[in-house]
Here is the input.
Amino acid sequence: MGTLIEEIFSRKVGRPVQAGEIVLLDVDYIMSHDNTTPLAIKAFREIGKPILDKNKIVIHFDHAYPAPNLLAAEAQKRIVDFMKEQGITQFYHQGICHQVLIEEEVESHVYTSAVVRRLRGFTNVSSVYEVTGDYDISTFVNVENVAALNNLIEEIRTVQGVKRTETRMVLKKYNGNGK
Here is the structure.
């Protein structure tokens, strides 16, 4: 088993892919959030070419939503205007765009609650659940990028009692009220 990115690319290519290898792939989605979208819009305008598939573009406001100041509000308005201009409809403004679920298997001689206490102390951990099934704990984390995710996974693997981990990306969150 490789890194998260190696696993994603391997599934997409249909064969094992390793770090350092160059692969050309069609992307499933292109996600940008309220902090990076203004830069993407600027680059898009400089390139001057049309968007090939607007249905693959997902824009998510979560770093500064609702806008905490005038500067953020103006940037978000420019983003919304660009979305309208380009016909981009996949827009989310609740939840967290970089939420990840890491599942941990606990060694049989270790109390699960002791591992939970350690996991709750990590800065990027939003919630921890004791669960049934192949893994004993499910940990939801919020990270800024893949490097931060990799670092957090490495830290979690050093917690005494954690036997192994498996990481999953949250693609879409549904509320319990039918939404």
In short: The chain has five helices and seven strands. Strands lie at 30-33, 57-60, 91-92, 99-106, 125-130, 137-142, 162-169. The chain has two domains: 4-92, 99-169. The two ends are 35 Å apart (CA to CA).
